[in-house]
Every structure is written in structure tokens, then in C-alpha cells.
Amino acid sequence: MWWPRYQHAMPRYALKVEYRGAPFAGWQRQRDQPSVQGAIEAALARLEPGPHTIAAAGRTDAGVHALAQVAHCDMARDWDPFRLSEALNFHLKPDPVAIVACAQVDDDWHARFSAIERRYLFRILLRRAPATHDAGQVWRIGHMLKVEPMREAAAYLVGRHDFTTFRSSICQAASPLKTLDELRVEEVAGLSGPEVHFHVRARSFLHNQVRSFVGTLERVGAGAWAPDRVRDALEARDRTACGPVSPPDGLYLAGVGYPEDPFS
Fold first, then answer.
1. Of residues 61, 95, 134, 249, which has the active-site annotation?
2. Whole domain around residue 48: which residue ranges?
3. In b/e form, how buried is each residue of 168-192, taking b as 16+ CB within 10 angstroms?
4. Dist. CA 70–CA 109, nearest whole Å
5. CA-CA distances (angstroms) from residue 99 to 105, 180, 255?
6. What pLDDT, in 10s, does the model give residues 79-110?
7. Residue of 86, 58, 62 whose CA lies nearest to 71
8. Is 107 a catalytic residue?
9. Residue 191 sits in the same domain as residue 94
10. At what angle do helices 227-236 and 147-155 cross, to 10 degrees?
11. Residue 40's closest CA among 11, 61, 69, 62?
């Protein structure tokens, strides 16, 4: 339970944020390009004089979406959380960004540093025709994929490993060692055709790690790679051993875990 703070402190609010990534250069504020962080900070400035600086659980790249990104902001006045979310949503229009939940939290609660896991979803649409309703929100490929070989290959990646092969060359993480808790491959009957979904869960991720996984596993599903080649690529600890990196279109930050859910 989140107890109210002393009156002298600036009230802190957790925000659950949904957005479509296509119009943005990513989450992080940019000087000359639109960003999700910039859009929310501009909306906050319409409610209280700024400058406002918000922090998020994860910095999604250009074109990546979110179903449940989590951020926090500090306000000068004591807002009712529902009214704050409604006011932000009013000022965020017409950007494809929505505050879907808001809660007051303790002063030391932090969207990034208090998080204990991140969950990502990646969607591949399997059909020859271009995507229309889902354009920009799925990776459409024109051939079928075999799911069982992809599951076999994915199993090699679960656990604690040196993921040098599956990190971007510009990744700024101090270490390539990460623990991958889940990489589940699922067949789904989508509205526009059959889809393959990848559910990925870990405490934290390297830059482009999920997209590197998906692009590599797609090669397995297409029959171009044997499943054990993914094991060999992992053990190589060499970026050149990675398969193609998938586009950002199908990637969603699906959820963030905390010791206690601030929105419950």
C-alpha cells in the first residue's frame, strides 16, 4: 500500500503508458525529433510550469511500441491520480500516446530502478499481402514459419549467458551477461492472418537483444538455420554470428514488474 507523503514533498506519480512507436524517434527526449518522453513532458508543462523530467522503466527505440511502459513524474501540487491521467490524455492528443493508469507512489519509488523485470512481445504476421490494419505494428513476412524448431532454438537462449552475439555494437551496458527468464514462441490466429508471437522476459535487456533474438529465430522457422546453430551463435560471443536483426515494427514493451504493483 502506498501511504500519502508529507505535505512538503513533491508528490510522485507512477504512469502506465501505452503508445504507438511509428511517429517517434524512440522514448528518449530528442532535441530536434519527436519522442514519447518529450510528448509527455510537454503535456505536463501544460498542467504545471516546468521544466519537467520524467523517468521510464525502459528506453524503447524508434518505431517500438508499448502496451504498458511505466514512467514517473514529480508534481508541485497534490493531484488526484485519475484527474492527472485525464488531464494528460487531453493534452497528449493527437499523439498516439495514452496514460492508461496513474498512481501516487513513495518519494523513493523509481520507474527504472525499482523495476525487477521487463516483458516484451514481438508479433510476426504471416501473409503474402501487405499489412493494412496492422501496418507498422507487426513484422509482416511472406512465408510460413515452423514453430517447433524455433522453440527448440529458443530454449538455448534461456538462462544466464554472455549475450555478446545478440547485442548491438553500440550497446552501452557494462556487461553482456544477462539472465533471460522466458523466451516463449506462440502461434496465434490474428485478425489479419496467422501470427507468431514471441514472449520475452528478463530483469533487463541489452540494446537490440530482443530484435536480434527474433531475427535469428525467424531464420530457424524459415528452415534456413538448424536450431543448434543458435546455440553455436550464442557460444561464439561474436556479433557477426547473429542472424538478421528484425525491424522494430512488431516489438512492444508489454509490461514492467515491481515488488509491489503501484497500480493495483
1. 61
2. 12-114
3. beebeeeebebebeebebeeeebeb
4. 12
5. 16, 29, 14
6. 999 999 999 999 999 999 999 999 999 999 99
7. 58
8. no
9. no
10. 30
11. 69
